[in-house]
Amino acid sequence: MERSNHTVTEFILVGFTTDPVMQLVLFVVFLGVYSLTVVGNTTLIVLICNDSRLHTPMYFFIGNLSFLDLWYSSVYTPKILVTCISEDKSISFAGCLCQFFFSAGLAYSECYLLAAMAYDRYAAISNPLLYAQVMSRRLCICLVIYSYTGGFVNAIILTSNTFTLDFCGDNIIDDFFCDVPPLVKLACDVKESYQAVLYFLLASNVITPTVFILASYLFIIAAILRIRSTQSRRKAFSTCSSHLVSVTLYYGSILYVYSRPSSSYSLERDKMVSTFYTVLFPMLNPMIYSLRNKDVKEALKKLVWLTQSEV
Questions:
Q1: Which CATH number is 162's domain given?
Q2: Whether residue 142 has pLDDT greater than 90
């Protein structure tokens, strides 16, 4: 029986499994991951705000990335936890739309923010003496504002085009959240115009920032090669390594899921990849940017010492 999107009042999220035991196991795993995500990103934000040594453009961007990851993970994980332990797997049409909108907006914003961070690394390495002047506080704030604006404007375009599709048959979403691949599978007919919108958004929000990041790193490599001291080269590269790892993991998983035609979507495979960039990646980012970072470690030690002194 065919029905259009305005008659759909709710969707059913299948999640990862229907086995009650595995659902309980997944609940514990996702609860642990989400707890680490909240603690890790919140701690990093607090450290950056409170320690004057971290009041630099690089840490300003890292703090905003942590805020994005904290928000991004909170769009998905609470609903995943409820789905794991509750017999009610439904999500309202409005709830699905809101989750879809915020997930798209935050994902696109993070793409732009990572590109801004690449420019920041280029400015720091290519001309360190003018770094503070080039990456002024005003420019940093503007780049963050542009990242959010670009991300959420494009999210409006994607959400409005997706939720005006005609859905037919079952309203069962074979995934753990409302995303493009499972919703396209429910659509009666995906027109070429919608596919064109997806490619446009992919090009403007993922491909373009990727090209910008690659270009920035080409200039960074050229600048590093001009450094005569081997030790200075290693130090310069180490300042970029965390960002490079973050970019590779995030962009790699997003490109894998969304750069293919809708006809080739594999929900089971895409579900696992989506888990990485929606749930695991926000947990990993604080570790990526802090484990090998001397300034963050020193700031953490100082915070722990102050806390113990007050107690």
A1: 1.20.1070.10
A2: yes
